[in-house]
Design goal:
The chain has one domain. By secondary structure, the protein is mainly α. The longest helix has 30 residues.
């Protein structure tokens, strides 16, 4: 009986996924690219890190994308294994609160560190931000609760639809999605690096201050949101 229930539930998952996106593989990957880019191009902690690190390293975006992938690929594998259970897991109030608190505190720490170091960085130093771009990608991704919520909702639907085509398509989907991250963060850091000679020291300081403020604001939002929801 349990086996029958499991099969029927799996079939429902795949049916939902195919209705949401497409049973045409080319149309599906079109959705994947558009949805992935719309997600990655939304300003957030990882974008702020790409801007900050891109000032000194034109390859910083690639390294940040690698760090992002260190967190993202295992998460995609987990979702592929447990399916809609991921959405149910991340909807648990305790889980949301835990992720929000830990991630929010880490983002505030990273943001405050960047704000305090903005003058030194603008003058060519490292300040207190001495972690490399790959580590920055890992930290800002891990500390971003929105990243996990996105994967527990939109990401689940995309992976279920990919499973409808077969396991090879799931692997291709993972690579295509991450390639969108790679392309955007690479473009961001390269653009910053190539235009930095146009920035005055004051502009440098303002940009790094804004990047730090973005992280702090996201950190506060991720702490207050789940806390208010439980209260």
């Amino acid at each position: 009986m349990q086996g029958t229930d499991y099969i029927s539930k799996s079939e429902r998952w795949l049916a939902v996924a195919s209705e949401l996106f497409s049973d045409n593989i080319w149309v599906f990957f079109g959705f994947v690219i558009v949805i992935s880019l719309s997600g990655v191009m939304t300003p957030g902690p990882v974008f702020a890190a790409a801007v900050a690190k891109g000032y000194k390293d034109k390859m910083a975006g690639i390294k940040i994308a690698v760090g992002h992938g260190v967190v993202e690929f295992p998460l995609m594998l987990l979702i592929a294994v447990i399916g809609l259970g991921a959405e149910q897991l991340f909807e648990e109030p305790g889980v949301k609160l835990g992720i929000g608190l830990v991630g929010g505190i880490l983002l505030i720490f990273l943001g405050v560190t960047m704000i305090r170091s903005r003058k030194e960085i603008a003058e060519g130093g490292e300040g207190q931000i001495n972690w490399n771009a790959t580590t920055a990608g890992i930290l800002t991704t891990s500390a971003n609760p929105y990243f996990f919520i996105w994967w527990a909702t939109v990401g689940v639907a995309l992976i279920l639809n990919a499973q409808w085509f077969g396991p090879i398509v799931v692997v291709v989907f993972a690579v295509v999605h991450w390639s969108c991250d790679l392309a955007w963060y690479s473009f961001t850091s390269f653009a910053v690096y190539r235009t930095k000679h146009l920035w005055t020291p004051l502009v440098h300081e303002i940009v790094f201050g804004i990047c730090g403020a973005i992280m702090v604001l996201f950190g506060l939002y991720f702490i207050i949101g789940p806390t208010a929801e439980i209260a």
